[in-house]
Predict the structure.
Amino acid sequence: MDGERAEELIDLVEINDLTGIRLWLAEHRPHEIADELARMTDAEAIIPFRLLDKDRELEVFEELDPGQQQNILLGLRGTDFRDLLEEMEPDDRARLIGEAPAKIATRALAGLSPAERRMTAALLGYPEDSVGRYMTPETVILHRDLSVGRALEVIRAKGAGAETIYTLPVVSDGRRVVGTIALSDLVVSDVDLLLKDLVDVFAPRVRAYEPVEDAARLMQEANLVSLLVMDSEDRFVGMLTVDDALEVIEAADSEDMARQSGASPIDDHYVSVGVFRLVGARSVWLMLLIVAATLTVNVMQVYEATLEQVTALAMFVPMLIGTGGNVGAQSATAIVRALAVGEVRVRDLPSVIWKESRVGLLLGVMLAGMALVIGSLLVGFSVAVVVALSVIAICTWAAIIGSAMPLLARKVGVDPAVVSSPMVATLVDATGLLIYFSIARAVLGI
């Protein structure tokens, strides 16, 4: 169905059927339209975008990735450019301008109203991956001494201009954060009660300069729709909303998946990314890995004499390094994921290694039984024993390496995903051969 929809819109654009394009746009939801625009060239996408109704234009625009948004903006002129940016949420606008080339950023800021420009500039003052860059300052702030009835009046008066009103910040004098209160609690409470008697003073909160991914994970764990954001002096500065948190988590998970596969992350829609850009994202890591793989070649050269004496050993090299690489990759993936969601920390390294070493040992024993039977049938019992013992040792070692490397990477400030599956597998290949040939020499006496 998606393929038919995309082909239909592209056909309409190619024949410049403006009436057909308008009908197509009216029949589809904003996220569907954004997905189809992302599949087109810049010149093609701007045509249906200009034909959108004004009330839907912003909805579609905010569904696009930042790179696609920049391309759309380049195709707009005059008031269309200014109106679109003026209507955006401040946090979305700040991230767009922060990632845009200087030419677009300067033009965008210059076209904003003074109030929106000040708000955007304040958000741009925070680091790129901080909570401050993603929070919304457009909220309804309630003082702790207000009554429920008066608080509801404030919400009615100011709520239309807020990005969210489901969870409301409660402050004391000087905008000092006290906690939050849910709109649903206000609606069902007696109008004469004071907010200070209802406020959740234990509501989670973060500081604006903290990493946004950590804040988003906190929202995920605590099932929050909004998260309090304060400055270094505990003054309220904004709220991180669930839609932004979901985008942060999605982007972080996508980046981790790319890193784990040995590639640089690409933010744009896959269909719109060119071949050369994909090659660039993957080639650097592949070149690094092929250099690292020369360790395996060197190990084979060192033990060339051993292979000449017992040529049957060579038969099991692919199986052993493949098994070791798979075990290491499984451990690395599990730990990277556990780090991402906060289930393990760097200080858990000893306990993680102890657990994973036992997992690797048990997996090795299980697989060694299979290797012993297969090896005995193919090359004889003595070589089969070497292979079985090697499987146990390599699986244990691979589990240790796979679990330790992401934690050590986090310790030194490197993204754990960078040293996950491909790097672990390459390292285990070389060290696994050392283990294999060392065991062969000891058991076979060569």
Summary: The beta strands are 142-143, 167-171, 177-182, 205-207, 226-230, 236-241. The two ends are 64 Å apart (CA to CA).
